[in-house]
Design brief:
By secondary structure, this protein is α/β, with parallel strands linked by helices. It has 29 helices and 30 strands. Strands 1, 2, 5, 8, 9, 10, 11, 12, 15 and 16 form a ten-stranded mixed β-sheet that branches. A six-stranded parallel β-sheet has the order 19-18-17-20-21-22, sandwiched between helices. Strands 23-24-28-27 form a four-stranded antiparallel β-sheet, with no helix packed on it. Helix 10 packs across helix 11 and helix 20 packs antiparallel against helix 23. Keywords: Allosteric enzyme, Carbohydrate metabolism, Glycosyltransferase, Pyridoxal phosphate, Transferase. Its cofactor is pyridoxal 5'-phosphate. Belongs to the glycogen phosphorylase family. InterPro entries: Agluc_phsphrylas, Glyco_trans_35, Glycogen/Maltodextrin_Phosph, Glycogen_phosphorylase_DUF3417, Pyridoxal_P_attach_site.
Length: 865
């Protein structure tokens, strides 16, 4: 008979063992090997059979064993040291307290998913893993972060294959009582938040807390008895359901998330956030909620509240293509943001303006979450230098008066949390210090190891990965209908002495899972080479609704099923943290071949590099900016060729050539291949510090969080600064049509311009109803292309020299001819205010008249020479 309800019963630990509960309830154990050793010592066999889940371990360990441990002095001493170490970790001053000067009281970090550990299955892929690593690194550095997400009762799907190799999805129930999390309580009562929905409905949620080292992660859960059945299902699964279902999830994450943060801070005394960081557009409604708060609680008008919110908000975009952005029908937004729900201070027309695609090529019928995220945040970033460039081009329509280079979207390249992803054996080879969390010279110990030690360590890791893979492949085939009797061959798949390549990631079409299959015969020849064979382990999930991605998986599985090559190439289902952790150290080469430039960052190659794997990748995402031929190999990109089949053929054959002529020969160059190990050393020592999540979080603190906190303080102090800024923006927008550059001239150019010459620039500007203090006049100069576009412009500010009648002014300055060849310049007027984060913030700029316009001044404003 089926149970009508399920729950987990936790054991009552003997008093001497209460420290085990302390260790379980802080997820630091997920990246702290010494704490994992304590759990393993409780019952080594049970620790392995539970998959390294300490909650299950303590729930299944026999009471007699607990009694035995409670009287074991050696174990109790070990437990005491582990608890003491954890207490020091969460309380001692770290980088933020010692070096950053604690310039930010608190940061609220919102994400739809968080990948902390496989024990807490609240993630689907790279976005969630990145968010988890962000929290862990913030904890290591002492950054006062509060994570905010949702608790999905079915999480993301688990993947299996049917007999034909077609992806199957299953959504196992996640039991919060069986996970290392706890309910936020106000006294004895679970804390809840609520949101008013159309038709007088209420969406309520309780708040679960996962303690990630020093960082609390709040997860909202709508599956409570106070909700109607439809509302209980809002947090059912990650990235599933109808359009309205997704909207309700994002409403709960953004609006409910802010309310949950307020409850958490009230109950616990945690410092209220000065900065709100939204990791992708899913949580964008947090800005609407903050505006509602300010209107309801402080009596601020919408424009003033908007400026207060913007000053303290950071928005990170992860998608390089418009199709990756959530967009909702305008009618759906109108239904859910009525005055009944959000008050008269947040009118629906102003909300709709935030997400409107009111730019050339936009769709007036949709509400764009990324557009709203950019309009509600004063600071925004992409996740690699190349992605920042792509994002500035993709969102340039919001700033039509500026070139894409001026679009105010910066970039902070992602990083990965080394203590989570680096194998213990690699740590033992590399560590020059025992502090794995903060130092960036932690890899210097590698200099003290011999080539033979490194090579043997990699073989051990390869064997461990192969053992894990064989177990998973066997189970996959049983799930596909095979019997044990026909699976003897599984024990012979893969070889610890063969060059091992890994390919694991989500399976959308642009990541090109099957690029390696463009020439199956050639791939087979490499897999079966008599002296230099390769072997490839592949993993990845396709979104349940992505039929094209599922077909790619099936094509790969069918190739790997071929008895001729199945010992050399395997597809392993259900890619997750538990599969990834042995995979990165077990690989020698990490393969990545997306369509450039559609990879925003791609952090899997970083994790592999930290474990001594060399990257073989298209120069996309992070690999584009940090590529070095000592870190691996760059697959040539045929970017620009419109025929996708021809492009795939060209890039696939370039990949084959690299493997056959460079990668495999170097790997098999001697019993201990010195040149390979030299590259491995160089990768870990030189690339390693760059890809650390601690570097990433420090960048966020210094480049975005601190400036946002300072803006937030200035605008929140009395709200007069925000009122003044809102009024100033209104004045500037109204007056801007009158702004013009009437005349520009150069002085001292000469008949033959020469390198190094300094020339004077004079510009005459009419300012209409604005004052000179409201604007800045800039000269931009540099090399020009065939269309007279200035490439890589250098900017210089011109100074006010003289004022004339009619609010006309002369500005002067100098520019240096610092490069040869075609050279051009222009002058523009942009708004200027101390509270702006960028001159492009308002999207307004006025330049010289078009020289071809009959009404233009006698002299052109720009010149080429």
């Amino acid at each position: 008979m089926r149970a009508i309800r399920r729950f987990s019963v936790r054991p009552v630990l003997p008093e001497p063992l209460t420290g085990l509960g302390t260790l379980v309830n802080n997820l630091r154990w997920a990246w702290h090997p010494e704490t994992q050793d304590v759990f393993e010592a409780v019952d080594p066999q049970l620790w392995r059979s539970t998959g390294g889940d300490p909650v299950r371990l303590l729930g299944e360990v026999p009471a007699a064993r607990l009694d035995e441990l409670a009287s074991d002095p050696a174990f109790l001493r070990r437990l005491e040291l582990a608890v003491s170490d954890l207490n020091g970790y969460v309380s001692d001053a770290r980088w933020f307290q010692a070096e950053a000067g604690t310039p930010v009281s608190s940061v609220a970090y919102f994400s739809p998913e968080f990948g902390i550990t496989h024990v807490l299955p609240q993630y689907s892929g790279g976005l969630g893993i990145l968010a988890g690593d962000h929290l862990k690194a913030a904890s290591d550095l002492g950054v006062p972060l509060i994570g905010v997400g949702l608790l999905y009762r079915h999480g993301y799907f688990t993947q299996s294959l049917n007999r034909e190799g077609w992806q199957q999805e299953r959504y196992p129930l996640v039991d919060p009582d069986g996970m290392p999390i706890s309910l936020l309580r106000d006294g004895d009562t679970p804390a809840t938040i609520s949101i008013t929905l159309p038709e007088e409905r209420e969406l309520r949620a309780q708040i679960w807390v996962a303690q990630v080292g020093r960082v609390p992660l709040l997860m909202l859960d709508s599956d409570i008895e106070e909700n109607e059945p439809a509302e209980r299902e809002v947090t059912d699964r990650l990235y599933g359901g109808t359009t309205e279902h997704r909207l309700l999830q994002e409403l709960l994450l953004g609006v409910g998330g802010v309310r949950a943060v307020r409850e958490y801070c009230r109950i616990t005394g945690h410092a209220a956030p000065e900065v709100f960081h939204t990791n992708e557009g899913h949580a964008g409604f947090l800005g609407v909620e903050r505006i509602r708060e300010l209107a309801a609680d402080k009596g601020l008008d919408f424009d003033t509240a908007l400026e207060v919110n913007r000053g303290g908000t950071v928005f990170t975009t992860h998608t390089p293509v418009p199709a990756g952005i959530d967009r909702f029908p305008v009618e759906l937004i109108q239904q859910h943001f009525s005055a009944d729900a959000f008050g008269e201070g947040v009118p629906i027309d102003r909300i709709l303006q935030l997400g409107a695609e009111d730019f050339e090529g936009g769709d007036p019928g949709v509400f764009n979450m990324a557009i709203m995220g950019l309009r509600l945040a004063q600071r925004a970033n992409g996740v690699s230098k190349l992605h920042g460039l792509v994002s500035r081009g993709m969102f340039a329509g919001l700033w039509p008066s500026f070139d894409s280079t001026d679009v105010p979207i910066t970039s902070i390249t992602n990083g990965v949390h080394a203590p989570t992803w680096v194998a213990r054996e690699i740590n033992q080879l590399t560590l020059a210090t025992t502090d794995r969390s903060e130092s960036e010279d932690i890899f210097d110990g590698l200099d003290k190891t011999t080539d033979a030690q490194i090579w043997e360590t990699k073989r051990i890791l390869r064997q461990r990965f192969i053992d894990d893979t064989r177990s998973r492949v066997r189970q996959s085939w049983i799930n596909r209908g095979a019997s044990d009797a026909e699976l003897g061959w599984v024990d012979e798949i893969l070889d610890p002495d063969v060059l091992t390549m890994g390919f694991a990631r989500r399976v959308p079409s642009y990541k090109r899972l099957t690029l390696m299959l463009r020439d199956p015969a050639r791939l087979k020849a490499m897999l079966l080479h008599p002296t230099r064979p390769i072997q490839i382990v592949i993993a990845g999930k396709s979104h349940p609704h992505d039929e094209g991605g599922k077909k790619l998986i099936q094509e790969m599985v069918r190739f790997a099923d071929d008895p001729e090559v199945r010992h050399r190439i395997v597809f392993v289902p259900d890619y997750d943290i538990a599969l990834a952790q042995p995979m990165y150290p077990g690989c020698d080469v990490w393969l990545n071949n997306p369509l450039r430039p559609y990879e925003a960052c791609g952090t899997s190659g970083m994790k592999a590099a930290l474990n001594g794997a060399l990257n073989l990748s298209i120069r996309d995402g992070w690999w584009d900016e940090w590529y070095d031929d000592e870190f691996g190999w760059a697959i040539p990109s045929a970017e620009g060729i419109e025929d996708t089949d021809r492009r795939d053929d060209l890039e696939a054959h370039a990949l084959y050539d690299l493997i056959e002529k460079q990668v495999a020969p170097r790997f098999y160059d001697g019993e201990v291949p010195g040149r390979w190990i030299e590259m491995l050393r160089h990768t870990i020592k030189e690339l390693g510090p760059k890809v650390l999540a601690t570097r990433m979080v420090r960048d966020y603190v210094e480049q975005l969080y601190v400036p946002a906190a300072l803006s937030s303080r200035a605008l929140n102090a009395t709200y007069d600064g925000a009122r003044d800024l809102a009024a100033w923006k209104k004045k500037v927008r109204a007056a801007w049509p009158q702004i013009r550059v009437d005349h520009v001239e150069l002085q001292g150019l000469g008949d033959v311009p020469q390198l190094g010459t300094t020339v004077g620039v004079r510009a005459f500007a009419a300012l209409g109803d604005l004052e000179p203090t409201d604007i800045c006049v800039e000269v931009l100069h540099g090399r020009v292309d065939a269309n007279d576009e200035i490439t890589d412009p250098v900017r210089a500010t011109l100074s006010l020299a003289e004022t004339y009648e009619g609010n006309r002014h002369r500005y002067e300055g100098e520019l240096k001819l610092d490069r040869t060849g075609p050279f051009g310049y222009t002058v523009r007027v942009v708004p200027q205010h101390k509270a702006l984060a960028s001159p492009a913030e308002l999207g307004l700029a006025a330049g010289p008249s078009d020289p071809d316009d009959p009404s233009a001044p006698d002299l052109p404003a720009g010149s080429e020479f």
